[in-house]
Amino acid sequence: MKKFFSRHWKKLVFIAIAAGTTVALWHFFVKPLIAKIKGETISQRDIAEAKKGNVELIFSAAGTITAKQDIKISSKPSGILKAIYVKEGDHVKKGQKLGLIKPGRNEFEDYKPMPILSEAEGTVIKCINSDDYRKDLADKDLSLPRLGTFLQGTYDNASNASCFLRVVNMDTLLIPAYVSEREIMKLKKGMPADINISSLEGKSRRMKGEISYLSTQSEVTGRWGDSSGFLVITELKNTEHKILLGISAEINVVIDKRENVLTVPANAIFEKGGKSYVFKYLGDNKTEKTEVELGLSSESLVEIKKGLAEKDKVLTALPYGESW
């Protein structure tokens, strides 16, 4: 026997170490991994605590910023543009001369030139045609109309009158957005709104505004008439004049709120048969399915009216063996 051990002691030590290592790997790694895969072991990441907090129901929409005052200035008579007295970016007053039009379609029609007057106070900007975005840069008109341009006047056809320039007031801006029937019923005029605007530096600029208009009828919003919605307009003050027209903005309005109520994460709620349940964690990998009564719900939190107490622990994932 002694000779056997003396001859094979190295092999025996190796076998003992290998066996110990195998047992340790099974006990501390393989078995927990299998249990985790099967779901028998509840991860701490899947456990949340019921606690007091605030639940906010938020309405969100997106729109493009426009000026509250954006007036298209046209000539009264049709004619040839003979003079322009302003340039883009100039501040003008109501009644100020902006240009001069010579009525008629050519120089041989002898009509007295007439001034084109501003209809309001504001900043001069160029008119934009609906098809401008399709044009190459070389074909785009980046300035006010050229002298000699023929302008269709409002006397002849007001709906088709040529746009000479626009006078905008950037002090107050609007964000129009279209919402569903369900959403429009939750909104009220005067509701405060948090507005998130993307800046040129890639950072977000947050401002305050309020809902100033709610449409009372649905409008077609899709390009091909395949969708509709109710127009909602949010108004904000542009005191620093750093916001540009045409940029996108996100609107968030708190339409309901519950303060200091019992809450759990929204992903801890499981619905079945028209009822709501949570899985209370009892410790030692044990759970208990519990019916709860819900209150106000947001994307992240849910108010619990009945079924749980403060500091109760619940699962945010189904326990092993549950089919839902």
Describe the structure.
This protein is mainly β and 324 residues long. The protein folds into 4 domains: 1-38; 44-55 and 258-315, conserved putative lor/sdh protein from methanococcus maripaludis s2 fold (Beta Barrel); 60-66 and 171-256, Efflux pump adaptor protein, beta barrel domain (Elongation Factor Tu (Ef-tu), domain 3), CATH 2.40.30; 75-163, RNA polymerase II/Efflux pump adaptor protein, barrel-sandwich hybrid domain (OB fold (Dihydrolipoamide Acetyltransferase, E2P)), CATH 2.40.50. Helix content is 13%, strand content 45%. The protein contains 2 helices and 20 strands. It has helices at 2-38, 181-184, and strands at 47-49, 51-64, 66-73, 79-84, 91-92, 97-103, 114-117, 122-125, 150-151, 165-179, 192-198, 204-214, 219-220, 228-237, 248-265, 270-272, 275-283, 286-297, 301-306, 313-315. The strands form 3 sheets. Strands 2, 3, 5, 8, 10, 11, 12, 13, 14, 15, 16, 17, 18 and 19 form a 14-stranded antiparallel β-sheet that branches. The chain has a 4-stranded antiparallel β-sheet with strand order 7-6-4-9, with no helix packed on it. The longest helix has 37 residues, at 2-38. It is elongated. The two termini are 63 Å apart.
